[in-house]
Amino acid sequence: MAEKKKFNYGGQAVIEGVMIRGRESLVTAVRRPGGDITIDARPLPSIYTGRLRRMPLARGIIVLIESMVLGIQSLMYSANVAMQEEAEEINAKAIWGMVASGIVLVVVLFFLAPLFLTNLVRSHIPNSVVFNIVEGAIRLAIFIAYLKVVSLLPDIKRVFTYHGAEHKTVNAYEAGEPLEAEAIRNYGKAHVRCGTSFLFTVLIIAIVVFSLVGRPALWLMVVSRIALIPVIAAIGYEVTYFSARHTHHWLVRIILAPGLLLQSMTTAEPDDSQIEVAIAAMGKAIEIDDAAAPAQPSA
To answer: Sign of the CA dihedral 228, 231, 235, 237?
Structure first.
């Protein structure tokens, strides 16, 4: 029987914890206010494990939806655990309201604002290619400035240390190391499949895609900036997926370098207690996947 394809584990940092997306489940490990670790494991819906999730281009859109929905579920869980000390619980409607507001903010800040700022000097830009390069440069500048600002917030800094713990744990696991803090702490806090690198790739691809639209009337450019986001995300995922599988090639390493550099703004060096939380999440996800795997026939 052929060996089952190796699964690429990944996840995200949450409030005082780490979420790991396994082959079969979503696992969130959170440090309680009292100091112990609680784990929430739930099976993944079929849309996130079925054929579409493996189909080129379509999988990029599925992953985008998956990251948003599952990420918010894990964030809600971690927030409620963290607030147990105050005996409060965050309302789900309030969370999803904040998510909707966040999506609008992303579209306005990273896609529409650069367009309107570039349009202010439209008469001084010779052609559509230069127009989109200028717009793309403004978009990147806003993105980097945004990361810099949020990295100054104390609560976000704390989340970024868990982000570093997640990356270190995944890096160590992929290198064949045991899930032990002593081994994991020696690994880097950057990872080629990180969402920060993915977003950077998306912003670069947006320059190319929007250049194909040209420089029509402003309202058409506004529509294109919104309507083409799923297309750009799908292409961005394929570029990230390909790059992660060819990291030994010198050209791929050059392409990956800016995104890896940006991760220094969204990750921080974790302590062993934070690595312990990441280990708990990763270990549980692997345990569930191993239990669900079909038994191999004896030789």
So the answer is: positive
pLDDT in tens, 153-204: 888 999 999 999 999 999 999 999 999 999 999 999 999 999 899 999 999 9
Amino acid occupying residue 239: V
Residue 3, pLDDT score: 46
Phi, psi of 42 (to 5 degrees): -140, 145
CB 54 within 8 A of CB 237: no
Could you give phi then psi for residue 170, rounded to 5 degrees? -65, -45
**Residues 107, 57: contact at Cβ < 8 Å?**
no
DSSP per residue over 227-273, as a string?
HTHHHHHHHHHHHHHHHHH-TTSHHHHHHHHHHHHHGGGT-----HH
For residue 26, give the 3-state DSSP assignment: strand
For residues 130 and 211, what is the distance between their CA atoms, to the nearest angstrom? Answer: 9
The H or E element spanning position 129 is helix 128-150
* DSSP H or E run through 113: helix 113-119
CB neighbourhood size of 90 (10 A): 16
- The rounded distance, in Å, linking the Cα atoms of 190 and 169 is 11
**What's the CA gap between 213 and 216, in Å, rounded?**
8
Whether the model clears a pTM of 0.85, i.e. scores above it, the answer is: yes
Given a contact cutoff of 8 angstroms between Cβ atoms, the answer to whether 76 and 92 are in contact is yes
Please report the beta strands in the chain, taking only residues with DSSP state E, as ranges in sequence order. 10-14, 17-21, 25-31, 37-43
Beta bridge partner(s), residue 38: 30
